[in-house]
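G., before I forget:
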Amino acid sequence: MDETSRTRQAVRDYVASAEQRDWRRFGELLADDVVYEMPQTRERIRGKSAFMQFNQEYPGDWHMEVRRIVADGGFAAAWIDARVGDEHQDACVWFDLSEDGLIVRVTDYWPEQYEPPSGREHLVERW
Amino acid sequence: MDETSRTRQAVRDYVASAEQRDWRRFGELLADDVVYEMPQTRERIRGKSAFMQFNQEYPGDWHMEVRRIVADGGFAAAWIDARVGDEHQDACVWFDLSEDGLIVRVTDYWPEQYEPPSGREHLVERW
């Protein structure tokens, strides 16, 4: 398996094991010194142990489904449909992997819905 | 050049030509029936002509710099540092390319800063 295929599989397994609450499998994908960042809140979590606890403690009956994974060598991006009850939110997640295929960095973006600015109604349709 | 390299180059050129306001080059990268979507506002723009006008009319002295491009066959994601004056905002952009290497779909996310929810201070640091 080449590096890109290995990266793609690791990201697939990351989402699947989180969705299944398979924390043993989830932990196997992470480097001990993994760094998790949420740039929108300027929050950072350091280390596998704290990052696993963050996921295990995350409130709500949350679910994640892959919309798309794009893998490129030791980097990847995942476009996720996250859901709590009937509430959906898309997430954009960036991954860095080590040479031995472990996830060393995860950067999460959670874009919120907002009202469009005026001035471009002549070009756009809404759905 | 393989498909992934071609896709990566097209996305690099997309950002560079927009940054340079090189609309001729920008237009050459797009399929005539390109679809642009902003899921956060549920806005959609159809067709190269309207999409180019949208970019040309976009207000403010905006600048874009690539933080990362991840390309995978005919798909790619770009992590962008967008700037207007001193205001920075990250963007996550998803690309679909046609078999002949033209951009047929662009999906833009503009995640905003927000205050973190309470309850995870024991795991996170702020920056």
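The domain at 3-109 of chain A is CATH 3.10.450.50 (Nuclear Transport Factor 2; Chain: A,). Chain A has one domain: 3-109.

More on Monday.
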